[in-house]
Design a protein that fits this description.
The protein is built from 13 helices and two strands, in the order H-H-H-H-E-H-H-H-H-H-E-H-H-H-H. The chain is mainly alpha-helical. The longest helix is centred in the N-terminal third of the chain and has 34 residues.
């Protein structure tokens, strides 16, 4: 019985470590999906781009922290491309993201030179923590906590500034923002740049944790991000902006724990994306279900 508990603990700790890294991506998805009210599919290309840049940089001898920073810049450039397509060329936001995502497939292959790069036995951002005596999982958890705490604090401060408030207002009421003399094209571009920078950073951290970067690792990333956002908001609430940011991290971790437990219960790995899609669809449909159930509740109360 004791070894069973140890196995479950290892599974949960592994899920938490991975969830913290995906939480960085979830925050990026939140900025476009909730703050800007845009469904940005650039995410599926920029997360793989971050992994590709970091892996290539590490294999050619760059410091892993510098490689991760360059991955951040690469993601910001991807977001800039989507923003320019949408604001300057007037291409719909969804289609702009799809075009950039498709282009990034070829770009990522160019960066890596092949479909995947191995990082086994390479120095990564987790190596300094491992030198302190921590194992790989605990090193990932520690760095993940530090990264998410820093990102949440920085974003909470940024979105309280004049520029950050303008970005938030653009998603809520762009007509009102334009009436105040603010260029909404600029705020949209800034939001997309910030979002995809975080997504690429997440990709770089994930690639270094799993020991390889693959051109296909971004497939389904947007659905995972949305699932984490919805789970976080439903389970942990959204009272104010700060608690919403914290709920994103908790939602990403919860999603990964759920996936780990579902796999442990025997669900085939091939059904994971179906499970995620159904989870997101049900979560997004909750308001509709509540509308249907409201008249039933009233009638039951009337009978009582």
């Amino acid at each position: 019985m004791k070894w069973v508990n140890l196995i479950m603990l290892d599974i949960i700790l592994g899920a938490i470590s991975l969830g913290l890294l995906w939480a960085v991506m979830t925050v990026g998805v939140f900025i476009t999906y909730r703050v800007l009210n845009i469904a940005d599919l650039t995410v599926e290309g920029s997360i793989a781009m971050g992994a590709a840049i970091a892996a290539k940089g590490i294999t050619v001898g760059l410091n892993p922290f510098i490689s991760t920073f360059i991955a951040l810049l690469g993601g910001m450039v991807a977001g800039l491309c989507t923003g320019l397509l949408h604001t300057r060329l007037k291409i719909p936001a969804l289609l702009s993201g799809i075009l950039t995502m498709i282009a990034l497939w070829s770009v990522n292959l160019r960066i890596m030179g092949k479909a995947n790069i191995s990082l086994l036995r390479m120095v990564t951002v987790y190596s300094p923590f491992e030198k302190l005596g921590l194992d790989k999982t605990n090193s990932i958890i520690l760095l993940g906590v530090l990264c998410t705490a820093g990102i949440i604090s920085s974003l909470y401060w940024f979105f309280g500034t004049e520029i950050g408030s303008a970005i938030r207002a653009t998603g809520n009421n762009p007509h009102m923002v334009r009436a105040q003399g603010i260029n909404t094209d600029t705020t949209i571009i800034l939001g997309l740049v910030l979002s995809n920078g975080l997504v690429a950073t997440s990709g770089a951290l994930i690639a270094q944790s799993q020991g390889y970067a693959d051109v296909q690792m971004g497939t389904g990333a947007i659905v995972i991000g949305l699932a984490s956002v919805i789970i976080g908001e439903v389970l942990f609430g959204k009272k104010n902006f700060y608690t919403r940011l914290i709920s994103l991290v908790l939602g990403a971790v919860t999603y990964r724990v759920i996936i780990a437990l579902v796999l442990k219960m025997g669900m085939p790995a091939n059904d994971l994306k179906l499970f995620t899609a159904v989870t997101v669809a049900v979560a997004l449909s909750l308001p509709v279900f509540k509308q249907y159930l409201a008249p039933i509740k009233k009638s039951v109360k009337g009978v009582e």
